[in-house]
Amino acid sequence: MKTAVLWFRKCLRLDDNPSLVQACEDSNVDSILPIFILDPGIVGEGFEKYGKNRLRFLLENLEDLDQQLQAKVSNPLHIFHGSPSNAVVGLQNYLKDRMYSFHSEYCSEPHGRSISQSIQDTLSIDKDIPCHFHPASHTILDLEKTISVDGFKNPKSMKDIQKIFSSTFSIDQDGFFQIPEISPEPKVLKPPPSDFNFQSCAQLFKGDLHTCSSLRIKFSKLKFLDTTDENCYFKGGESIARERLKEKVSTRHDYVNTFKKPKTSSTNIPSNPREPSTTGLSPYITIGSLSVRRLWKEVEKANRTGPHSTPPESLHGQLLFREMFYLLSRSVENWDQDQNNSMCKEIKWGEHDDIKMTAWEDGKTGFPLIDALMRQLKSTGWMHHLGRHAVSCFLTRGQLWQHWKSGRDIFDHKLLDSDWALNNANWLWLSGVAPFSMPYFRLYNPCPDGKSSLNVDAETAGFIRHWVPELENFPVKYIYEPHLAPLGIQESAGCIIGKDYPLPIVNRKEVAKENLASFKTSLAQLSA
Ligand SMILES: Cc1cc2nc3c(=O)[nH]c(=O)nc-3n(C[C@H](O)[C@H](O)[C@H](O)COP(=O)(O)OP(=O)(O)OC[C@H]3O[C@@H](n4cnc5c(N)ncnc54)[C@H](O)[C@@H]3O)c2cc1C
Q1: Residue 206 pLDDT greater than 90, yes or no
Q2: Ligand 1 centroid to 199 CA: how many Å?
Q3: What is the set of domains in the chain, with CATH numbers?
Q4: Separation of 282 CA from ligand 1 center, angstroms?
Q5: Mutate to test the pocket of ligand 1, among 50, 318, 404, 410 (most ligand atoms within 8 A of CB)
Q6: How far apart are CA 73 and CA 32, in angstroms?
Q7: Less crowded by CB within 10 Å, the N or C end of the chain?
Q8: Cβ(192)–Cβ(72) below 8 Å
């Protein structure tokens, strides 16, 4: 019996999964052992690196994958909680000569690359077990290949990344990049090794081995799953990801073809304060239950039907930004740091201030838009891109003068789409320190009106009323800056500012002036 071990790492799906296709197509392979690894380096020894929503979402994605594998070929997913290298050694000791090959996806993060290397080394010593880490499964570009091309330069703009795409993919007569085709789910999947014994395998592994049901029990005991149904707006799983893709993209050519990101609303759709005005596909792309290539192709199908928006504003533009940031995260040293990072100016940010940080994180700053967005993040694990612009600008160069890394870490804990490459990229962008940042002195007004580029709903302010219920009855005229409302209005709205809802934590105009001056001084010191 020859067994292929299949580590679902970046692709928690059966669709467009090169590792799965390869293991299924290899005629020497009789059985497949599907595994997932909860790496303490990523999730923490006690799962402390992930917020509750992230853990719930991850579990739902694993359960969906497990159900698909069980339904199709009675082959359950085995979940290791421990170091990936130990998991592989444990499997090797258990399977012995039956372990024929190892298949997974390339990971571009420094931690992920060192894990891949150590697995490759383990499997090649003595046994020479073929070990495949498929490139271009989580991104459209093969990152290693792209950065090693002669003359590769770090892309810093949409033009730069389009140039890289043009030199990587040919362009057809209609002007579309010829992105490689998607690999559909294999018609025939392979069964588990017939004599696989869960307990014996668990004994050989220095860590915990779980099924989806034992992991659910563990998460329940640890109270990770006590979020309400309402909060679980984004449910995990490949089937749900494909459903959202269909509803937001595949069946809505008009929406796709007129999509212009800067025109989308940061306060979601008026009829539902939880439903994004954008696709809301990022949680699924990040966790890998949706293939980024499939999204690209679905957008392309729509674009082929007629006139359409173009990068940087279009949906392809958004995916090109994603590719650009992935390339940078791979090629730039110290991508997640402000020191020795060629994409980061080392601004002298203020001392870490617990009061400011907690008010920001908990949505209690006294700025209703900031608070509504942060409460949405805490509750659902998601926030619109322009909302992320507003809260990150507010925390850093705008009002609170806190280090971008402090905000990045809170996002990392809470966002369902938290992604090392992209979260760092966007914080660098918004805090004004990167070459691809907007000019640092262009600030968002945290108390916007209907004309703001944050595109808030200034007519009904339903988003604010939903997420900051203290202000539910406030007149729209004052709702974005409620402390300016005369006392009589506050009384009739049933919300006294300073008592029922906080006064603004800072004087937004005064601190903005001071912060811009500090930014300018810091820049001058850097170039002195
Ligand atoms: C401070 C800050 C932190 C962020 N952290 C993350 C993160 O950890 N993970 C993450 O996926 N996105 C991050 N973003 C980017 C962006 O906000 C989200 O990708 C987007 O809001 C997801 O919603 P959507 O799927 O509806 O996007 P859509 O507008 O529908 O775009 C489609 C897809 O394009 C990609 N995309 C869109 N915008 C960006 C962008 N600016 N950078 C990279 N990819 C993009 C995403 O995969 C997204 O799903 C961050 C933005 C900011 C300002």
Answers
A1: no
A2: 41
A3: 238-331 (1.25.40.80), 354-527 (1.10.579.10)
A4: 6
A5: 318
A6: 10
A7: C
A8: no
